Amino acid sequence: MRRSRRSTPVNIRFRLMRQERNRGIIMSDKLEKWIKCFKVICCDVSILATDRYIFYSLHKMISSNSDLHKPSYYYDYLSYTYGTYAQVAIRRQLKGNKFLSNGHINPHYCKRNRNRNEISLARLLSEIHDTPEVLSKSYYISISKSPLLETTPICMELRKKVLQKDFANLYGGHDKHIAPEMVMVDLIALSTMSSNIECFVDKRLAHRDTHELDHLPTYYEINGCITLLNKLCCKYLGIFSAESYDTLEKNMQHNWTQIFTIPWIVKQD
């Protein structure tokens, strides 16, 4: 039974390890490493999802105002800047994926590659796939919070059964730990969704390749990748923190569009 939140998990990201130590939960070195990496990944994806919201809000603002429907290099700049930034941010999360889009093991994925210091969602999930026992059902139950009263053995046993069912439904149905088959499906989905973006960033943005590209990424593909990254981060944040999130997109604490109510060009007398 997990508490549901919509707001971005900034607080939980930075409280995870401290809370677990305070509650006497023993974690392996590998689990501590995963949690540290996952904090960075969630932060990056949260910023990416929020920036997507801002970009499309600006697009809607311009589309709905006919006075702004004039040729402008600024529109090209805005689209190019967001497109480039978003694709590089997506590419960052693809490093170290164990599986190709066809389900075969990536030939570049080896022990030497796994031990490198890059942080990415694909690398983290690949390590979870290799050692799923680290994310165990007992760990999930130990960090879960329940509104049920635990003053009697009956309540405690009921809470445990509910959490066991929750874990099985959410994380692959394995008896003792997260199901590696489920993690593999997520890795293949990530590889499939992002293959065009990965190729474009490597051959056009980060480097300039002499070969022509068969396909250029679309904004639809960029949007799909961001949605998938957001979804996967929320999913695995659930097992790391035992709390439910439906998005990492930040809730704006102020009216960020207020600056557009003020003329940007001051007339000179």
Walk me through what this model shows.
The protein has 269 residues and is mainly alpha-helical. It has one domain (4-134, 179-261). It is built from nine helices and two strands, in the order βαααααααααβ. It has helices spanning 10-22, 29-63, 73-92, 111-114, 121-130, 137-143, 153-170, 180-205, 219-241; strands at residues 4-5, 244-245. α2 (29-63) packs antiparallel against α3, α2 runs antiparallel to α9 and α3 crosses α8. It is globular. 25% of the residues are buried. Mean pLDDT is 82; it is low at 1-8.
Looking at this protein, list some descriptive labels.
mainly alpha; 2 strands; 269 residues; two-stranded parallel sheet
Count of DSSP H/I helices: 9
> Major beta sheet, specifics?
2 strands, parallel
Shape type: globular
Number of domains: 1
User: If strands are numbered along the chain, what order do they take across the biggest sheet?
Assistant: 1-2
Helix/strand order:
EHHHHHHHHHE
Q: Residue share in helices?
A: 55-70%
Structural class: mainly alpha
Low-confidence stretches: 1-8
Q: Which whole number gives the mean pLDDT?
A: 82
Distance between the termini: 65 Å
Number of strands: 2
Radius of gyration: 22 Å
Residue share in β-strands: under 5%
* Quaternary organisation: single chain
